[in-house]
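Work Package 3 (structural annotation) set out to generate three-dimensional models for the target panel prioritized at the project kickoff. During this period the team completed the workflow that converts sequence records into discrete structure tokens, so that structures can be stored uniformly alongside our sequence database. As a representative example, we reproduce one entry of 206 residues exactly as it appears in the project archive.
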Amino acid sequence: MRIGLLGTGNVARALARGWSAAGHDVLLGSRRPDERKELGLPVAGLSETAAHAEVLVNATPGNVSVELLRSIGAPALSGTLLIDVGVGMSDDYSELSHPNSSLAEQIQAAFPQTRVVKTLCTMDSTAMVAPASLEGPSTVFLSGDDAEAKRTTGRLLTDLGWPESSQLDIGGITSARGQEHFALLFTGIANGLGSHTFNIKVVPLS
């Protein structure tokens, strides 16, 4: 598939490399593409990246994501599957930018013709693309209102090493709040472990 990733940070680069290794055609989108040629990955402007993509991935800081998507425009995003992996946090990571909602809900409300799926925001970029490097199987969550969009997202997660048994559909786009609000607990766990590379596993009753 043609996958456009908005952002050029650690998450965007890790996902781009992971999906490229699985055979997908990836393109990173930047506001200043001429300044990001050293990444070893193809980079273009935001609108060009959106036009290229069958699947678009938001890997930008959550407190600027909606503004950035508006600069691309709703017509360019209409009908597109947008996988949102962003979380909006304060500069000191102590507060959420969307304490009574979620970034994914804000994107879906701003772009009702775009099929938004929230996933991969409960872990760092290393775990996103190398789940087998952890000590055991763990869980990746999916939230969204479009069933087919979630199925496509699930296939792309499988390409990153997440088997279907590790994927948990937790409901509509409002359930993205739980994923994003986990960021506060993530920070505490990271401080306790002394590492940001870990994940959680849902363990049901036997």
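DSSP finds eight helices and eight strands in the chain.
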